[in-house]
Structures are given as structure tokens and as C-alpha cells.
Amino acid sequence: xxxxxxxxxxxxxxxxxxxxxxxxxxxxxxxxxxxxxxxxxxxxxxxxxxxxxxxxxxxxxxxxxxxxxxxxxxxxxxxxxxxxxxxxxxxxxxxxxxxxxxxxxxxxxxxxxxxxxxxxxxxxxxxxxxxxxxxxxxxxxxxxxxxxxxxxxxxxxxxxxxxxxxxxxxxxxxxxxxxxxxxxxxxxxxxxxxxxxxxxxxxxxxxxxxxxxxxxxxxxxxxxxxxxxxxxxxxxxxxxxxxxxxxxxxxxxxxxxxxxxxxxxx
Length: 266
What we know:
This protein is 44% helix and 16% strand. The chain is an alpha/beta fold. It has one domain: Phosphoenolpyruvate-binding domains (TIM Barrel). It is globular and about 85 Å long.
């Protein structure tokens, strides 16, 4: 059965780097990100327009490539969480969390009894067709499935200690875009209000034994927050990386010294 590579990295106190897939409906992107060396791929079904079968293909491609498939659901709903896990997702991102009671229920959906209430329905290809007992599958999945809770609003920050104290929270991930709006500084991702609020959450997460994380928009932002203690760090999305690299390539090409054309033969 597959291990959760990202949980393994985090358990050693190291930093796990990932990249979001939000725009392009190709399972091969997960393989490319794995080849580049990312630890996890963050498949976004909150803002991305992917259908379930596309997400299933992305999860499968990630699994075959050795990169951890983590999926953000659009809302806290059991049927979304359970289906994604049954087709191989190794982590669930819960967005817009503010209510500890609602999150506590959602966390129970991720793991099988006695740790949770997840129904048993995982398909054989997602345990590599291994012949394992139900007890073995349950124990393995419960220890190799991760939960990521997003902090994106002022109420979430105000209730951070209550939320972070819930059993089963593995990662506290800041959503900086929405948080900047909530703090009244939309798009000012390095505003003092943002830095103060995020750094306070890093301290709180560490106090509760939860990994602090953030999904950034650029490599530079990812570096900025890694240097400040974030350990689950998303470095933009596939569309942003492609566009940035394409612009860099075109700029280089446009600056190439071109020899003068030879006169045409008579």
C-alpha cells in the first residue's frame, strides 16, 4: 500500500513543497510536478472547474508518479470527502473553516473507526491490488491520510486555539488571498497586518503540534514564508509556473543577438 510521502517528510521536521493544479485539465501535470521534485500536488476543486472523473485521473497520475495527491473540497460535505479518499486522495484540504464543531465532524469523515466514521469502500487499485485484510487497510489508511485546515478569515484566526486543539488536524494552512481581503488589505500579501497575523498563527500551530502551512502565488512568496517557519508550502499553481517560465524564455529569446541576414543569391 502507498505511503504518504508528504506526511513522512513532515514527521521528520522537514519542509514539504507543493504546487496547485487549478486550471489545466490534464492528469499529466501531476507527473510533471513529481518529476520536478515537488512533494505534493494540491488539486483544487473549490476554485478549479474540474469534474470528478478528471480529479480521479489526476489522483491516479499522482499516485503512479510518487507525489502526494491532496485535494481541496468545495465545502465541508461527507459525500465529497469520502469519494475523493476512495479514489486515492491522500489528503483533504478543508476551506473557509471558522466553526470548530463543524470541523470536528468533517475531520471524522477522513478516518475509519475508531478514529472516525469514514465508510469502508476503497477500491483495489488504490491499495495497489494487494491482498490485505480490512484491519490492515484501515490501520494503514488512518495513518497515511492527512487533513489540512485553511485559515482565511478573522473569525478563524480568533478561534485558532480552539480549532488547532481538535484531534486529527495535521496542517494549518493560510489562504493569503482571502485573508488579505478579510484583514482589509486585499492583495497586499506582505502588508504588516498580514505578516503579524500569519506569524501569530505559526506560533499557535507549533504550540498545538500542528504543522503550519501556506498556499502562495509565487516561488518568491513561498521562500519568504519558508524562512519564517512554514513547513507545508505551496509555491503557486501550474498555470502561474508555466506562464512565468514562458515569459522568461521569451525574454531570453528576444534578447538573443541575431546575425545579419545574408544577401539573397542572384
